[in-house]
Amino acid sequence: MTGPIRRIAINTGGGDAPGLNAVIRAAVTAAVNRGWEAVGIRDGFNGILLPERYPNGGVVPLTRDRVRGISHLGGTILGTTNKGNPFHFPTPQRDGSVVDTDRSDELLAYFRHHGIDALISVGGDGSLTIANELHRKGLRVVGVPKTIDNDLDKTFTTFGFDTAVSFATECLDRLHSTAESHQRVMVVEVMGRYAGWIALHAGIAGGAHACLIPEIAFDLEKVAAKIRERDAEGRMYTLVVVAEGAQARHGQRAVLAPAEIGHAERLGGIGEQIAVELGHMTGKDARVVVLGHLLRGGSPTSFDRLAALRFGSAAVRALEEGLSGVMVALAFPNVNYVSLEEVAGRMKAVPLDCDTLQTGRDLGMCFGD
Ligand code: F6P
User: Fold this and answer.
1) If I label 237, which of 13, 82, 139, 249 is the partner at 20 to 30 A Cα–Cα?
2) What does the pLDDT look like over 155-179, one tens digit per residue?
3) Does the beta carbon of 103 lie inside 6 Å of ligand 1?
């Protein structure tokens, strides 16, 4: 699509993250200030692809008034889904089975028919891969990097991550005193999919004694040794933070539900497993706390809020400059634009030589290796 922009659509896809509403507010305000109209698509692309679910409209006008005062709110006023990939849309059949359908042409036809000149797609790896495919099919698209996991490449950080880390850190702070009072091992499981960013950052900031991340296959005997060492020094409690995607050297990743059409596998359960094992190995009382979706809820921190507002406004500037197929990225001190092609399908893991990890080692943190 070429020509002047008159109307843009915004959608939010994948797991929610604190800051989504701030992106929407900034993008809508910046668009309206340019004389453009903005509409929001409900629940990823479901608002267009499953219209029967939305008696009040699957695509809603986003006016200046509609987005007033929402920057500090968690979640997304548009709703989201991680089961609505238009290229692999799950279509239920009469016999109860589900068929993988490519509905991307329908989506593009909708945009053309309703005079939507461009899309701002706010999402993580899955949503930005979809955005890139839509761009390749001719749609003007700008992506905005969202995820608490911080696993998107080519941006210093994603919005949502700081809020998740801040909350996990506060939880660790609180667990120190109760773990110490009861001389317990406390295992704290955090989200993050296949990357250990949340576990590493919160673990260090919150003073955890062991940190298990997907990037380092762990040997639980090393963690048990750390617990015994602390006990021998009279520090009778240990906090272990474990990323949901962490895996023992000869073990398997803990999966709660396998991947389905248009939906990735669901991780979880590693915390419980290692709490039981550490209890057996050390003879200590070991408990697990799974932070799960608490990491995704609540208000964005000021860092995430500001990043999200900057991303939303930069996305509109990108469209104004005629860019498409790009993602807004944080490249301190400014934002810049990177090609979606360079981001789609890539994961930013914790580099094993990064200084944050080395800081953990210098502080005596056990990584299970
Ligand atoms: O990508 C964000 C995230 O919260 C991951 O950390 C987690 O593995 C996943 O989403 C959980 O997704 P759901 O809410 O579908 O269980």
Assistant:
1) 249
2) 999 999 999 999 999 999 999 999 9
3) no
